[in-house]
Write a structure and sequence with these properties.
Number of domains: 2
Oligomer: single chain
Structural class: alpha/beta
Number of helices: 11
Order of helices and strands: EHEEHEHEHHHEHEHEEHEEEHEH
Number of strands: 13
Keywords: ATP-binding, Nucleotide-binding, Transport
InterPro entries: AAA+_ATPase (IPR003593), ABC_transporter-like_ATP-bd (IPR003439), ABC_transporter_ATP-binding (IPR050763), P-loop_NTPase (IPR027417)
Organism: Natronomicrosphaera hydrolytica
Distance between the termini: 34 Å
Bound molecules: adenosine-5'-triphosphate
Protein name: ATP-binding cassette domain-containing protein
CATH superfamily of the largest domain: P-loop containing nucleotide triphosphate hydrolases
Mean pLDDT: 91
GO molecular function, one term: ATP binding
CATH architecture of the largest domain: 3-Layer(aba) Sandwich
Shape: globular
CATH class of the largest domain: Alpha Beta
């Protein structure tokens, strides 16, 4: 049975528009003009227990609105949304016991309290029995290396330390679903790797379903077997990263390091030259028109080559094209 069902979900916001100038402001008091923003315009997806799904899209596409509806904070204008058979905004108390939410830009911990006291408060709020709370807390403290941080007030933590504490806080009540909104934003390389490893671990070992919203494509490549791309309020693509690539382009790239920096003599039939600097050449070619083996044979027959390799276009490029197509 699917754990999350979203069908034809719509959410519109009516925004009061202010007219410019003092007269405009006075006129707005008497007669307000409104503008409607269709943040979600028919979103559909199903997520099974234990999936780790990336939810990506350009700014303003509707990601946060979806997550807010799924967490019961917002009520949609129309459509169906059920999680564990419950409607999130109608059965909020039961629903929040099943979910954990982490926002990279905000903390759910109490700013002036030591971390451990925030944990205790969350235990009270979620009414977690003492024995299971202690067991889960000890596991999380060990896995996320939190022991040295427990007595430190949250405002004194670095961003990376705070994120590790926020992840623990979201999991203390052992939810079966975790919503992560930009969990690696602003983190240094080592902290990013630690957070990613932890997300992977709670998904594979504990079977927690994870919905990850991010603009960091390295997060997606490292973690997600499935990616949903949203644009203009609807899902543009739902599948593996390979599906996403196939939907956007068949293009592949040949990268050639030349023995002589300015020795490039490309032929028009080899594809499009998209980079040529410091002896490195990057060609975008269509493997259906010219096979990689044939292209390599032609290039090496006519050039002195130090090194070469074939790769897919960077995922950022693929995603940007998908966003542009969707827009
Ligand atoms: N409370 C609100 N009132 C009015 N408009 C809103 C509100 N929340 C979101 N919107 C609008 O709905 C659209 C979708 O916003 P949303 O925050 O869901 O996008 P997003 O994909 O999360 O963007 P980002 O990547 O920038 O966080 C935008 O046009 C936004 O301005």
């Amino acid at each position: 049975m699917p754990q999350i069902v979203v069908e034809n979900l719509r959410k519109s916001f009516h925004i009061a528009q202010r007219r410019p100038g003092i007269m405009g402001a006075l006129a707005s008091v008497v007669r307000r003009r409104h503008r409607t923003v269709h943040a979600l315009d028919g979103v559909n997806f199903i997520i099974d227990r234990g999936e780790l799904v990336g939810y990506i899209g350009p700014n303003g596409a509707g990601k946060s609105t979806t997550v807010k509806i799924l967490s019961g904070i917002l009520v949609p204008t129309a459509g169906r949304c059920e999680i564990e058979g419950r409607v999130p905004w109608r059965e909020r108390v039961a629903h929040v016991r099943d979910i954990g939410v982490v926002f990279g830009q905000r903390t759910q911990l109490w700013w002036d309290l030591p971390v451990i006291e925030s944990f205790e408060l969350l235990r009270d709020i979620y009414r977690v029995p003492h024995t299971s709370y202690r067991r889960t807390r000890e596991e999380l403290v060990a896995t996320l290396d939190l022991a040295p941080l427990l007595d430190v007030p949250v405002r004194q933590l670095s961003l990376g330390q705070r994120m590790r504490c926020d992840l623990a806080a979201a999991l203390l009540h052992e939810p079966s679903i975790l919503f992560l909104d930009e969990p690696t934003i602003g983190l240094d390389a080592a902290s990013k790797l630690a957070v990613r490893a932890f997300i992977k671990q709670i998904n594979t070992r504990r079977g927690v379903t994870v919905i990850l919203t991010t603009h960091d494509m390295d997060d997606i490549e490292a973690l997600c077997s499935r990616v949903m791309v949203i644009g203009n309020g609807s899902v543009l693509c739902d599948g593996t990263l390979a599906d996403l690539r196939r939907q956007v382009t068949r293009e592949r790239h040949l990268i050639v390091d030349l023995a002589e920096a300015d020795g490039w003599r490309g032929e028009p039939g080899w594809g499009q030259l998209i980079e040529h600097a410091s002896g490195r050449v990057r060609l975008a070619f269509d493997p259906d028109t010219l096979s990689p083996a044939e292209l390599i044979a032609q290039v090496t027959a006519t050039h002195a080559v130090r090194d070469l390799f074939v790769e897919n276009p960077p995922i950022e490029q693929v995603v940007t094209r998908l966003y542009e197509g969707g827009a």
